[in-house]
Each structure stands twice: as C-alpha cells, then as structure tokens.
Write a structure and sequence with these properties.
GO molecular function (chain B): GTPase activator activity
Structural class of chain B: alpha+beta
Largest sheet of chain B: 10 strands, antiparallel
CATH architecture of chain A: 3-Layer(aba) Sandwich
CATH superfamily of the domain at 349-501 in chain B: putative rabgap domain of human tbc1 domain family member 14 like domains
Distance between the termini of chain B: 72 Å
CATH topology of chain A: Rossmann fold
Helix content of chain B: 40-55%
Number of strands of chain B: 10
Structural class of chain A: alpha/beta
CATH class of chain A: Alpha Beta
Organism (chain B): Zostera marina
Shape of chain A: globular
Subunit structure (chain B): Interacts with non-phosphorylated form of RAB8A; phosphorylation of RAB8A at 'Thr-72' disrupts this interaction. Interacts with ARMC12.
GO cellular component, one term (chain B): cytoplasm
Largest sheet of chain A: 6 strands, mixed
Largest interface: A-B, 33 and 39 residues
Oligomer: heterodimer
Radius of gyration of chain B: 29 Å
CATH topology of the domain at 349-501 in chain B: Helicase, Ruva Protein, domain 3
Radius of gyration of chain A: 16 Å
Order of helices and strands of chain A: EHEEHEHEHEHH
Number of helices of chain B: 28
Subcellular location (chain B): Cytoplasm
Strand order of the largest sheet of chain B: 4-3-2-1-7-6-5-9-8-10
Strand order of the largest sheet of chain A: 2-3-1-4-5-6
Chain lengths: ~200, ~675
C-alpha cells in the first residue's frame, strides 16, 4: 500500500533468515511484547501489522514472517515481492545462519525492490557466551552492502523496537509535489519506490 | 379413474403395464384428488400419482428412466413410491417418454423407490428451472438423497400440496424452494430461525401465468449435452405453477445424490456454476428470451442481487439442511473387539472406517487402531502376524537408526549434510508441542525420541530428508503409539502418503491447493469468484492447513480425532480438502463482506487457529463431499496427496539444504 497524504505510510516488511534464527520471536516481541522460549516453527507464513508514530509520519508496518527452512525457499518471493523493507535475521551463535543471511541479502539485491530498506539483525544477543559471529564482522558486511545493522534479543527485547523504528524512519516519505491532490493511492509498493526517491 | 389393483404394490411394473391405457388421461390431471378405494387405517390409498416422472441416470437427457410417482396413504402414514416402467412399457410415445431400453433392467431396479415412508424424508427441494423440466430432490434423514425426479408432465405443486394434506411439511425460511418434512428432531432444525408454515398453502392459492418460453443462452450452453434438444428452444405449454413466482430465483441447482447415481449431478453442477456466477453480479443473458413476461421476473431478481453486497451462498441452505450425520462418541474397546475375529483380523474394514469416521477412537485404543489406519498393519493380519511384523520391524528400525548413530564426531566433521540435517531436526524438536506435559521440561526423553525418529527417518528416506512440519506430524504419533520403532513405521507410512507435501518444488502442495480451488469453484462459486477477483486463487492462505493437516488449527485431542477421521479415507481420500472448503464456507460472509485481500485473509486464517468447531466442520465437510460427489473427485488430479504416489523411480528431488538459490522463484 502506498502513502496517503504526507504523514501516513503503509509499508510491507518481510522477515527473512535461517530457521531458528528468531524471526517469529522478533516480530512477536515487537507486535505483542511476548517471548516464548520454544516458539514453534512457522509453517507457510504469518502476517502481522503494527503502526508506529514517528515525529514526521505515522507508519503502518505490514509484516510478513516467513518459514525459514531452505526447503520453503521457493515460496519466499511471494512474500518479499513488493516489500519496501526487510529484516534479515541470523543467530549470533550460529555461523551457518550468518552465511544464510548473506545469501538472502544477495537474493534481495537481485530480485527485490531496489529501494528496499534492509536491516541485518544479529539475534539472540543475550547468548553472548555462545557467540560465533563477531559483531564487527557483521557490521562490516552490512556497511559494504548498504544495510543497517543491529544485534537484537527477542528474549530480552534489546534493540527489537529500535530495529523496527529505524526501518520506519528510513522508509521513503511521499513527495507532496508528485501527488498534488495527495489522493493517488496505488497498490504496489514498487510504485511507492518509484514515486518517492528521497531517503531520510 | 379407478385403479383396480392399487393395493398390490409389490408388482408395480405389471400394474403399470396394465394401466397404459389410462396414461394419457392421468398425466394431464391438474389436481391431485383422491381416487381409488379410499379407506381408514390399514388400507392403502393412492393419494397422488403422476406418470412420466423420470430420473436421468447419466448426464445425457436421452438416457432417462421414466416411471410413475405415487403417494400412498396407509392410516396416518404416507409413503412415496416411484417405480420405473419396464422396457417397452414406457408409455404411448416412446420418442417422448424416454429410452429406457438402453438401460438394463438392473439399472432400473437400482433406482426404484419403493414405499419410502415420509417419516424418513428430511426435506424436498423443488427446482423449477426457467428452461427445462421441473424436478424435485428428495433428501433423506440420513443425509443421502435420491437422484432428481423430473416431472415430465409437471405436477410438482400438486405433489407438495398433497403431502401437505397428509403430513407436516413446512417451507424452509432460508429457501423458499426447500420443504422440510416432519423433522424437528435434528438439533439443527431448532436453529433454523423460523419456519414458514403457511408456505405451501400460499403456493397452492397463488396464481401465476408465467410461460416457460424463456430461453437463456447461458443455460443452453451449460446444459451441455448434445442430446438435449427437448430442453432448448422448444416452446413450452403454459404451466400453471404459481410456485414459479417465488421460485424463479437465481439459484444453483445441485443434487445430493446417492453414490450410484452421482453422474446425474454433472449437468446440475454446470448449472450451479453458471448460476452461482450470475448470482455474483453478472447479468444473465436474456437476449434470446422470446417473451417479455418471462424475462421480467429475472430482471427483478437481478436488481435485488445488485443490492446485496455479499452473494448468497449457493449451498448454504442445503448445507444447513443436509448436514452430515450426527457425530458419535469415540469407539471404545468393547466395540473395537466386535470388529475382530478370533485371530485378530478385522472382518469388515469398511464398517470399521465408517465407525471411526463418525466418532473417532477412545484415547487408550488409538495406540492399536492408528497402526491400521496409517497402513502399518494390514486389516487382514492376525495377532500373530502383527506380533511377528513388529519384531522384524523393530530390528529393521534399529538397523536404520544405527546408520546415523555410528557416525563418529570425526566423521561428522566431513559430513556436512548429516550435521545440517541433525541441526534442523534439533532446532525443531525442542519447539514442538512443548506445552504438552508429554514433551515439556528440560531433557525430556520424548523430545529425544522425536529427534531420533526424525533423524532415522531422514536416513531411511534420505531423498526427502527432514522438513519443517514433520515434527508436527510425528508428535501426536509418538504420543499415541509410545513405542519408538512402531512410531517410526507409522510415521513412515504416513509420509508415504504425505511426503510429497514436502517436495522442494512444492508439487504436492500445489496439487492440493489447485484441487482446493477447484472444489471451492463447484461448491461455492461466489466465494471462488471473490477470491479470483482478489487475486487469491493460489490458496496459499491455506498452506498451513494442508501442509500439516490442520495440526496447528486444533487442540491436541481434537487433532488426533480429526486425523483418524481423515485417515479412514471413508468418504474421500481427500477429505481434508473438504474440511478446508467447510471452514472457508463458514467464514465466507466475513471474507467477502470485509473484502479481505491476501494479507488480511492469511492473517485471518492463521488466527482461526483453535477457534474452529471440529465436529461441525466435519459434518459440513461430509455434506460438501456428498454434494460434490464425483464432480468433487474429478477436481483432484491423480496422485494428489494423500493418495499413494504414482510409481516413479525418483520419488523426491535430491535434497540439498545448501543449494540455496538453485530453486526457481514462483
């Protein structure tokens, strides 16, 4: 969904990442403030929405949480197609999950919306003693690839709201000049991207 | 007109022959007056009879079996009888009165309705199509129905008003064309908001002069059959059936039919699709309509439809009237033992499946029964054979398990695929049903068993490997079966049917989702049209339902019941798809009314979890499955899970968890 007026933004956000990285836990912490130690696996996909009030806009995030197993990879395009934002999650205690995250980044760069706001989330930051992926390494990777990076913990809630708010802040704002009446509603997020190129 | 031997109902065909002379007169009777030697209790009295009432055993109207329909009264009881004419006796004009000769006598006898007590009738649905013959569908209390009875000499109104004189009959408040007979026992009946008791009387008293001349080009096409010239174009004589006032509605025409006559429904379903489509707001084509008087009512109805935001559910009334049978209590040990012969064979597997379909199995007994339902034990095995099989299979299992147990840590370092697979399984088992006491707590033995069985399975079926969702399937099996090896073999048997749910190319899922879309198309055309317009026809919002057979949608005890119902394959191997349709139909009003898009729909569907009434859903699904009949099964491509896969050397694509990006996008 596109913007309406100059202060309301609807944006589709997709969560990608290896299974068990904590995608569902991140979104549930963010949307419902909940955390389950044994969050069941996501079958197919789940959908949530959450509205954020920022100083310059109200942003409604429509969040797609996807199944992580590579087996279901062929379904992913259905969910990231048309997304204006993505969080790619990995588990800091699992190097394979970081490798998988890089592959998601590659895929989105090739297939996704070119103006997509993409965040890299090193989740399970509370498990410092089991850390396998250095924060510096991930940060450097993120910088090279134009992502913003945070280490998060769905369990302790560290950086969870922050990463979603940061995405909301970075989402392109509507350019009033292009929508003189302010009433042109479009349905495809790619059109948002085309019609609003400024990034805050 | 006197009928000399109307008491003798056992030899009706001969009687019919003897009455050929009288056919011409009787068929044009416009009333249903009593005739014959009427009497009090104990004496038969024919209170209604009509010649040339026919059924169409196939979709071709040329193949029809004509016969005589009668209502017979004995004391307070009313009986319905329809006896086909014998070959060569079918009336004065063979060209017009059907070609029974092409059908065997056996066929004809199959359809005979002999002395059906009206007490056994649930409802009668009247169909008065704008084009073609009037027909009725008699639905029994059992939920089954006779094939449509076509009144080639009209007389539906008299038929209903005769019943009204002798039995209690009430028009359904939901559908003016459905007449409920004698039935107030069904709890559902009580929920029907109101019964319009004067309905029949109002028909009988009303007057109307609508010609049958209306020809709809759509309907012509959809009647389809090449041999239906009698349906099209031919001007009809004026029929004084005032019921047409109310009954010219844009309604589907479908039939619940008994298994032996399901083909009959093909044509009806065509009409159903057509009309359902019209119902959703398309204007029926009436360009060819020759007479103004016949067109007007149609337009009136269309106008009404345009004011209704949500199209009516074509099957709603039928569904609520013709529910599946009431659910029973779960089968207990005593009842189970009745199914076994002294050596432990199951004597009548179909009866057993039927029993389980209608009520499931008591918890303690599941351990035994599931092994049959899943196909691990065969129904004709003896106690001794099963014991032997179990011991062999146990060794077998240990051997397969040892394949991965024997992998040393050093070897594992060089065996990425094994490490990955183990990792996947370990990630999932610790989050599978952990809120159940059977699986909760640290270092739970059963969680370890889940892991061992799944890892062993991923070696047993290395090509398929492990897939998210499998732990959902195994969890209740292990909970029920308890034994590790037996659980493994039960799971393996289930995966033989459902393994292709997990194909990398999603072919098994696509086949089922496709079949689901086709089923909705025939069973709820307006919903189908809505989903089409909302670009939701991929049915991915039902992905979770199908992938793990509703495991996430019901509480644990409910899912065990649903699964055993599904595993009976009693009505259909693909009963789970009818469950999907039943749930979707239940919420169709909301889905269409709120104009849900894909996102909203998926969210809505996911959030139905644990809020669905299982018994009601199964009953609805049963009714839908019966409705769809062979047309439903025809929607389902061969080999669609859980059908056993069509034999191919490579059942699954090579499984590589690290070939990220190789698979194509959809």
């Amino acid at each position: 969904m596109a913007t309406a007026g100059n202060s309301n933004i609807n944006a589709k956000l997709v969560l990608l990442g290896d299974m068990g990285a904590g995608k569902s836990s991140l979104v549930l912490r963010f949307v419902k403030g909940q955390f389950l130690e044994f969050q069941e696996s996501t079958i197919g996909a789940a959908f949530f929405s959450q509205t954020l009030a920022l100083s310059d806009a109200t942003v409604k995030l429509e969040i797609w949480d996807t199944a992580g197993q590579e087996r279901y990879h062929s379904l992913a395009p259905m969910y990231y197609r048309g997304a204006s934002a993505a969080i790619i999650a990995y588990d800091i205690t699992n190097t394979e999950s970081f490798e998988r995250a890089k592959k998601w980044v590659d895929e989105l760069q090739k297939q996704g919306n070119p103006n997509m706001v993409t965040a890299l989330a090193g989740n399970k930051a509370d498990l410092e003693e089991n850390r396998k992926v250095a924060a510096e390494e991930a940060k450097a990777y993120a910088e090279v690839n134009g992502l913003f990076f945070m280490e998060t913990s769905a369990k302790t809630a560290v950086n969870v709201n922050d990463i979603f708010y940061e995405i909301a802040r970075r989402l392109p704002r509507a350019q009033p000049a292009q929508n003189p009446g302010g009433m042109i509603l479009t349905n495809t997020p790619s059109e948002i991207a085309q019609s609003s190129n400024c990034c805050s | 007109m006197q009928e000399p031997d109307h008491h003798d109902l056992s030899d009706d065909s001969d009687y019919a022959a003897s009455q050929q002379q009288g056919l011409g007169k009787s068929t044009f009777r416009s009333d249903s007056g009593k005739f014959g030697a009427g009497g009090d209790g104990g004496v038969w009295e024919v209170v209604y009879f009509r010649e040339n009432v026919a059924i169409h055993p196939t979709q071709y109207s040329s193949e029809r079996i004509s016969g005589r329909l009668r209502l017979i009264k004995q004391g307070d009881a009313l009986f319905m009888t329809w006896i086909p004419y014998k070959a060569g006796q079918s009336g004065v004009d063979p060209a017009r009165y059907g070609e029974n000769s092409s059908l065997s006598e056996k066929d004809q006898n199959l359809y005979t309705i002999r002395d059906l007590p009206l007490e056994d009738v649930h409802s009668i649905r009247r169909h008065t199509p704008a084009l073609g013959w009037q027909y009725i569908i008699v639905v029994l209390l059992s939920g089954l129905a006779y094939p449509p009875l076509y009144f080639y000499n009209s007389g539906v109104r008299e038929f209903l008003s005769t019943i009204k004189q002798h039995a209690f009959i009430a028009r359904s408040s939901d559908d003016a064309n459905v007449f409920l007979v004698n039935n107030f026992q069904d709890p559902l009946q009580k929920t029907l908001s109101s019964l319009e008791l004067h309905g029949v009387a109002s028909i009988a008293n009303a007057t109307s002069h609508i010609s049958f001349g209306s020809v709809s080009s759509n309907q012509d096409i959809n009647r389809g059959s090449s041999s239906n010239s009698e349906y099209s174009g031919k001007p009809r004589k004026r029929i004084q059936d005032p019921a047409r006032d109310i009954s010219i509605q844009v309604l589907e025409k479908f039939s619940l039919v008994t298994k032996f006559a399901r083909e009959t429904t093909t044509q009806l379903f065509r009409e159903s699709q057509n009309n359902g489509f019209n119902n959703y707001g398309k204007i029926q084509k009436n360009e060819d309509a020759p007479s103004k008087s016949s067109v007007a009512p149609d337009h009136k109805i269309e106008a009404n439809i345009h004011n209704v935001p949500v199209p009516t559910d074509p099957l709603k009334n039928e569904l609520s009237l013709i529910w599946g049978k009431p659910r029973k209590l779960p089968m207990g040990l005593e009842e189970w033992n009745i199914f076994l012969d002294p050596e432990g064979r199951i004597m009548d597997p179909v009866a057993l499946k039927k029993r389980i379909f209608y009520g499931g199995v008591q918890n303690g007994l599941r351990k035994e029964v599931w092994k049959f339902l899943l196909g691990y034990f065969s129904y004709n095995s003896t106690y001794a054979e099963r014991e032997y099989l179990s011991s062999v299979k146990k060794k077998n299992y240990e051997t397969i398990k040892f394949q991965w147990q024997s992998i040393s840590p050093d070897q594992a370092k060089m065996f990425t695929k094994f490490r990955e697979r183990k990792g996947l399984i370990e990630k999932d088992v610790v989050r599978t049903d952990r809120s159940m006491s059977f699986y909760d707590g640290d270092e739970n033995k059963n969680v370890e068993l889940l892991r061992d069985v799944l890892l062993t399975y991923s070696f047993y079926n290395f090509d398929l490997g492990y897939c998210q969702g499998m732990s959902d399937f195994l969890s209740p099996i292990l909970f029920v079966i308890e034994d590790e090896s037996e659980s493994f073999w039960c799971f393996a048997a289930l995966m033989q049917r459902l393994g292709s749910n997990f194909n990398r190319d999603q072919s098994g899922m696509h086949a089922q989702l496709f079949a689901l879309s086709k089923l909705v198309e025939i069973l709820d055309c307006p919903l189908h049209n809505y989903l089409k317009q909302a670009d939701c026809l991929n049915y991915f919002f039902c992905f979770r339902w199908i992938l793990i057979q509703f495991k996430r949608e019901f509480e644990y005890d409910q899912i065990m019941l649903l699964w055993e119902v599904l595993w009976t394959h009693y009505f259909s191997e693909h009963f789970h798809l009818y469950i999907c349709v039943a749930i979707l139909k239940k919420y169709r009003q909301k889905i269409i009314g709120e104009q849900m898009d894909f996102d909203t729909l998926l969210k809505f569907i996911n959030e139905l979890s644990c809020g669905i009434d299982l018994d009601e859903t199964i009953r609805d699904a049963e009714a839908l499955c019966n409705c769809a009949g062979e047309n439903g099964e025809a929607c389902i491509p061969p080999g669609t899970p859980p059908s056993l896969p069509i034999e191919t050397p490579m059942m699954y694509q090579q499984d590589d968890e690290d070939d990220f990006g190789k698979s194509g996008c959809i």
